[in-house]
Q: What sequence folds into this?
């Protein structure tokens, strides 16, 4: 007979035919079964414990993997942030690799091309010419000219016209025109006869009005240079070519200016060519 009840595992009392706990009948068994543990406390208990242990181990592994993944992701995020700051990035395994020189990502490092030779050369600035420069007055003709300084005088145009008529009358031996350019006081200094004798071979050229200056008595002094060519008999000291520097004292107001008599003691200067 069995030592334990095969239904509930209760130990059998000596020579009992039925279990005192569940009243199940005892069966005959081999003697070796008397020393074995009951079925409910043997293989069934071991299987249950193994299953529980397997579940615990599985959960532990899953939790450990989650912690590892979280830790790795955190490091990857920190490394990615670090790489954005210091110009590197991470590969698929989490290792830092050098950044590309021309990244396509907006978060990558910015690549600045090296300046070319034209860009490194400092620009040169050309001075801008005044598109409308101040024009000097253009007065004069083939016989009489005037300096820019003298041309700024309001009477410059009238002076050029007066002297052109005056010197052209001498070259053409035209006494009436010559006389008409002077005041009565100046006319009295040179008669028609004196004019014909003194200027019979004279030709004046290169007449230049050097300056126009008002005088203390209200007249306008025209400082004039010119060149005269003449026969030796008609030139000063027998000169056939003479450079003159004279002062023409002009009276009246533009445009009706006339050549007046020079002050007492005034003399023209001359030099041979």
A:
């Amino acid at each position: 007979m069995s030592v334990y009840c095969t239904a509930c595992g209760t130990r059998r009392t000596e020579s009992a035919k039925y279990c005192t706990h569940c009243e199940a009948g005892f069966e005959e068994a081999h003697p070796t079964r008397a020393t074995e543990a009951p079925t409910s406390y043997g293989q069934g208990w071991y299987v249950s414990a193994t299953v529980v242990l397997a579940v615990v181990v599985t959960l532990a592994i899953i939790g450990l993997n989650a912690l590892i993944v979280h830790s790795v992701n955190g490091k990857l995020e920190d490394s990615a942030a670090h790489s954005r700051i210091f110009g590197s990035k991470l590969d698929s395994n989490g290792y830092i690799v050098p950044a590309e020189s021309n990244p396509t990502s907006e978060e990558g490092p910015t690549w600045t091309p090296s300046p070319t030779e034209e860009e490194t050369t400092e620009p040169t600035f050309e001075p801008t010419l005044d598109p409308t420069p101040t024009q000097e007055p253009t007065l004069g003709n083939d016989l009489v000219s005037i300096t820019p300084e003298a041309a700024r005088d309001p009477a410059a145009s009238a002076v050029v016209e007066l002297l052109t008529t005056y010197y052209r009358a001498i070259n053409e031996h035209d006494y009436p025109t010559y006389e008409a350019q002077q005041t009565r006081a100046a006319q009295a200094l040179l008669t028609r006869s004196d004019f014909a004798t003194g200027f019979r071979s004279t030709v004046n050229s290169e007449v230049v009005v050097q300056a126009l200056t008002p005088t203390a008595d209200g007249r306008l002094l025209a400082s004039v240079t010119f060149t005269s060519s003449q026969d030796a008999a008609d030139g000063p000291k027998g000169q056939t070519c003479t450079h003159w520097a004279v002062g023409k004292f002009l009276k009246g107001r533009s445009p009706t200016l006339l050549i007046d008599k020079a002050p007492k003691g005034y003399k023209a200067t001359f030099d041979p060519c």
